Amino acid sequence: MPPSGGVTKLTAEEVAKHAVAEDCWVIVDGNVYDISNFPAVHPGGPQIAGMCGKDATELFQTRAGKDPHPESAQMKLETMLLGPVGLVLEGTTLES
Ligand code: HEM
User: Fold this and answer.
1) pTM summary value
2) In this predicted model, what pLDDT tens digit does every residue of 24-57 receive, in sequence order?
3) Residue 94 within a domain
């Protein structure tokens, strides 16, 4: 779920609080992504829910030993970007 207001700092500790498929944040290459509910529809399978709350850089880049993800996957990921690790979101309300 997106930050719901107040001050949220995008730290590894904060990301770790979002560790289930329905409330799933991951770090990829120094950026924090809110991929809540995406594991259920991930073309590569729902097992990526195991990365919720963690740094998924290696798995995203290697797809567990297969070829890298296609460009389209990176673009889809960017639609779920919260911001770089360390960013402070102040008074941000992404929900109406
Ligand atoms: C943190 C985010 C992600 C992680 C850790 C991740 C990880 C993986 C892994 C491990 C696989 C291989 C699955 C297997 O065949 O055993 C895979 C496949 C795939 N992923 Fe992701 N993925 C992520 C995000 C995305 C996104 C955003 C997209 C875009 C829609 C995407 C599209 C795909 C596709 C198309 C495949 C290939 C499916 C197939 O072989 O039929 N992934 N992913």
Assistant:
1) 0.92
2) 999 999 999 999 999 999 999 999 999 999 999 9
3) no
